[in-house]
Specification:
Blueprint lengths: L5 H13 L8 E3 L3 E3 L3 E8 L8 E7 L5 E5 L5 E16 L2 E17 L5 E8 L5 E11 L4 E4 L17 E6 L4 H11 L23
Bound molecules: copper (II) ion.
The site of copper (II) ion has 5 residues, from loops.
């Protein structure tokens, strides 16, 4: 990881002190858990800038096995998909693919340090269960940069890391029926946790009040 300016380091220290859990700060995913093989909507939450400087660029690096990433356009920002060779070959519509989207770049804003925003993409997750770490480069006015790229030596705790990558835990797929029922009875579009990705299921008529 690279934290290029001393002020940025100080800001991170302050950030860590302010948020003992650190879950609300830094750059994190709104839904930290999703089913293997599902289509996942990644919402990257940007909690602050770089040492008070406004953010003008966000680069999300897609972990190996994450395929077909499609970013949501965002007012005031341009979006670019960077294509490259895949660390592991994938399949798309029954064909083997060796190239794909490796990075998504948003440029614009700037997003003031005092403000909060979200950056969204959708992608297909690998079939393997386990942690996926999304490296995110945050570039700010005045040349400050934070590279959210730190990964713990083992496990998934980001405690003590100054600039952790954004963590997604890929969990085993649940029985589809159980998730559909959960959706119908909960009346919610959003997953309740536990890896149900409700985007796979039609909403039964009258299920939502
Ligand atoms: Cu932070």
């Amino acid at each position: 990881m690279f934290i290029r300016s001393r002020p940025a380091r100080l800001a991170l220290a302050a950030c860590a002190a302010a948020w003992a859990g650190a879950a609300q700060a830094h750059i994190t995913l709104e839904q930290p858990r999703a089913e293997a093989g599902s289509t996942y909507k990644a919402v990257f939450r940007v909690g602050h800038g770089c040492d008070g400087a406004a953010t003008h660029t966000l680069i999300v690096h897609l972990p190996p096995g994450v395929q077909e990433a499609r970013p949501s356009p965002k007012a005031g920002w341009t979006v670019e998909r960077r294509i490259g060779s895949l660390a592991q070959a994938g399949t798309s519509h029954g064909k083997t693919v060796t190239e794909g989207v490796r990075q998504i770049v948003w440029r614009g804003g700037p997003l003031d340090d005092a403000h909060y925003d979200e950056f969204v993409l959708r992608a297909k997750l690998p079939e393997q269960v386990g942690p996926l770490w999304f490296r995110v480069e945050q570039r700010c006015e005045g040349g400050a940069t934070t590279d959210w790229a730190e990964v713990p030596a083992s496990g998934t705790s980001t405690r003590g890391l100054k600039a952790p990558a954004a963590l997604l835990e890929v969990v085993p797929p649940r029985a589809r029926g159980a998730c559909a029922l959960k959706r119908a009875t909960s009346g919610r579009r959003r997953p309740l946790g536990g890896g149900c990705d409700f985007s796979h299921f039609p909403i039964p008529q009258g299920a939502l009040s």
